[in-house]
Amino acid sequence: MCGGISQYNTKNVQGPKNYLMIVAMRIRMEGFVVFDFQKEYPKALRELAGWLAEGKIQRRETVIKGGLGKAEQALVDLYRGVNTGKLIVQVKDGGDEESLRASL
């Protein structure tokens, strides 16, 4: 179910309540994952990179500074859902943060 991943860490899972209607209405339900579209990856990466550069989409990330000494706590925080977007542990000061992000 598209969007189901948003329910992974919630205490009160939300979703379809009328499962019995699947039989009555002869509804077909099929799951999909990103790997089903692997052939489209190069095109998607080009489009996404373009949209990111144009500001049409924005990425959210949480950068943990302090090197590898902070990695263990960052992993714990990742599973607790403390971060917003991608969780990055900065292991070396690479100058300005924008050049750090560009290298990712």
TrEMBL record:
Domain of life per record: Eukaryota
Entries under InterPro entries matching the protein: MDR_fam (IPR045010)
GO MF annotations in UniProt: oxidoreductase activity, acting on the CH-CH group of donors, NAD or NADP as acceptor
Protein name, per record: NADP-dependent alkenal double bond P2
Lineage: Eukaryota, Fungi, Dikarya, Ascomycota, Pezizomycotina
